[in-house]
Specification:
elongated, mainly alpha, 78% helix
Length: 231
């Protein structure tokens, strides 16, 4: 790729799919000049859509299976995910840092899953499984170094829960016993689906960025050809 091509800003045209135009809104101009950074930014924006849907589904479920303060607390924690998603997207747009946006999202997700796990049985809770998704999101949107950091943090959380349990600390489980198997099966199924969707989102962002880049290069070549013909 020539220097002239790399300096060209990658943009989403009016004929682009709606999700691509939405993603482009949160990707600042500085990121669009680098195809790899643009691909990672688009992956990050698409991945931010998943917690929004999940927070609505799980908050609705917990509201119906729980009662009293556990219901209010669990639903409040889940719905606050949308605030974290908005903060992550706006941080990415204002600062041009994909890592900052993703760390905001992963930081809140870590606190969210940890709090819900301790509310529903501690390290043996099915909510603890959701911590395993954080390194995957980090490696797809930013890179392996950030993924290793979040992997270490999640392992430390598991170790702390196990240590407390071995020391005799009892984690209360506020889920009704009749709902625990259903929640466990739902968590395992959703995690499998999220892993698959995350990889598909990454591949779609990669192919979409390549198509956009090829279109931009083709327009540039046509412009150069027109200029040469005029000369």
């Amino acid at each position: 790729m020539t220097q002239c091509e790399t300096s060209r800003t990658i943009v989403a045209g009016a004929d682009s799919p709606p999700w691509l135009r939405v993603a482009a809104f949160f990707v600042p101009e500085s990121i669009r000049r680098d195809p790899e950074a643009y691909r990672r930014a688009r992956t990050a924006v698409y991945l931010c859509a998943l917690p929004v849907l999940l927070s609505l589904v799980y908050s609705w479920n917990f509201w119906h299976v729980l009662s009293g303060w556990p219901a209010y607390l669990a639903c409040g924690i889940l719905l606050a995910t949308n605030v974290a998603v908005a903060g992550a997207l706006l941080a990415m747009r204002w600062t041009g840092s994909v890592a900052l946006g993703i760390n905001i999202l992963l930081g809140y997700s870590f606190l969210e899953f940890s709090a819900l796990a301790w509310l529903f049985g501690g390290p043996t809770s099915s909510v603890s499984y959701w911590l395993t998704i954080l390194p995957l999101v980090a490696v797809l949107a930013v890179g392996a170094r950030l993924a290793l950091f979040w992997m270490a943090l999640c392992q430390a959380q598991f170790a702390l829960g196990l240590w407390l349990q071995l020391r005799g600390f009892e984690f209360a489980n506020h889920l009704p016993e009749s709902q625990r198997l259903a929640i466990w099966l739902g968590s395992v199924s959703c995690l499998s689906l999220i892993c698959l969707l995350s990889v598909m989102i990454n591949e779609r962002a990669k192919s979409g960025t390549l198509r956009t880049l090829l279109t931009a290069n083709a327009e540039l070549e046509r412009a150069l050809g027109t200029a040469e013909a005029a000369d």
